[in-house]
Specification:
The chain has about 120 residues and is α/β, with parallel strands linked by helices. It has helices spanning about 10-20, 35-45, 60-70, 85-95, 110-115; strands at about 5, 25-30, 50, 80, 100-105.
């Protein structure tokens, strides 16, 4: 079973993520801030991470940077979720090693499609 970690500080979005992926074959783990996300990634060793950019404690860029500094976690793709669609913000996502970008707000079908992209054979 594939494992996905979502890091999002907004409780409503966390609920939507759980609802959107409840009917899929993915094991979904959710963290509410960057520090907890990094601990969860280390514990679960997911196949992909989706992370909000702006969060308390540790932002998404710091999570990605910490992942890339760890030989055990550096191979795990990370997709940043952000409400910003400004070119500079998107470029910053990729400078921090993003495998993709998901603009907020997103629909449940958009979310399922983005997750599925990482598990197509």
């Amino acid at each position: 079973m594939s494992k996905v970690v979502f890091c999002e500080d907004d409780p409503m979005i966390r609920k939507l993520v759980r609802t959107a992926l409840s009917s899929t074959s993915h094991q979904v783990h959710v963290a509410e801030d960057g520090k907890r996300c990094l601990a969860l990634i280390d514990e679960v060793r997911p196949d992909v991470v989706f992370s909000d950019v702006m969060m308390p404690e540790m932002d998404g860029f710091a999570v990605a940077d910490a992942m890339h500094e760890s030989a055990d976690l550096a191979h795990i793709p990370i997709v940043f979720m952000t409400a910003s669609v400004q070119r500079e913000q998107i470029e910053q996502c990729f400078r921090h090693g993003a495998a993709g970008h998901l603009a907020k707000p997103f629909t449940m079908s958009e979310l399922r499609a983005r997750v599925a992209q990482f598990f197509k054979s």
